[in-house]
Amino acid sequence: MPSLMASRVLSGTRPTGRLHLGNLLGALENYKKLQGEDAFFMIADLHALTTEYETHAQIADQIMEVMVDYLASGLDPERCTIFVQSEVPEHAELALLLGMLTPLGWLERNPTYKDQLRELAGRNLTTYGFLGYPVLQAADILLYKAEKVPVGEDQLPHLELAREITRRFNHLYGKGKQIFPEPEALLTKTPRVPGLDGRKMSKSFENAIYLSDTAAEVDKKLRTMVTDPARVRREDKGHPEVCPVYFHHGFFNVSELETVARECREALRGCVDCKMELAGKLNEFLEPIRRKRELWTKKKSEVRQILDQGRQRAQAVARKTLAEAMQAMGLRK
Ligand code: TRP
Ligand code: SF4
Asked: Is the CATH number of domain 8-194+300-328 3.40.50.620?
């Protein structure tokens, strides 16, 4: 049970496919720490639809993939509430209400919106739904009156908009009271996790190591990972701090980290050996997750039950808040 002092936590993940080490070291580790508090973790399928509406056929399968990854890596449905956004229709209803008071200018100025339009240039994103992305996200947060929102840095502009919408709502309809608390970001401390090519690990860059990769796939991928470019020959001295392989040693081979750094600086170890040592450690770490993944993959009806239970818990809160918002806005007496 959450303690009386625990603040309500809510976060969301778009179900865009299997999770990789970047997701694990960023969001997932953070989620696990927040379990046992009053925490809601949502699979944001409606948000996925804002960008995937032309290729929507897989969203339902992807929800299952994310769930299997969550459960296999230790998210415990007894200690937090996991649910699917579209299964709690109050999200759509509150988003519509918040849309009434959100000025268009706030949405058009949003830097994340502009970045995404540029990054996803191949798709037609000049839609009503995509512009309204942050309004829906604000509704996600406000429905649970969440005070803490664990997110990565890229989400800060969305969070700021959610706070502005909150203030405007309270100002217009609160009659001096704060109906919704102003949500705060709980920034994930993990630095950006480098992928195989040294850029940020991301599904769209095809540089990711997935929780579901086999041991042989991990070995093969690590062989292609970039290292310190200064180490052209075996006897060239290296700079571990710029090397993505070293970054991962810092998580999966902590006890040997100093040895790795020293031997790299003094050219006492080759990059291939260094990578294979990491592959061994990474596979040791991933093996139990893989085994649990396999088990959960066979227990689809249990996963479904977990989501049903999550939906019930989430909806109990969401219904109350929506009624309160409708009353404050004058739709109900
Ligand atoms: N926009 C978030 C992302 O892309 C996902 C998300 C949807 C979210 N609703 C949320 C995050 C509410 C935090 C709170 O990562
Ligand atoms: Fe990176 Fe290891 Fe090579 Fe040093 S020895 S550059 S840490 S792979």
From this structure: yes
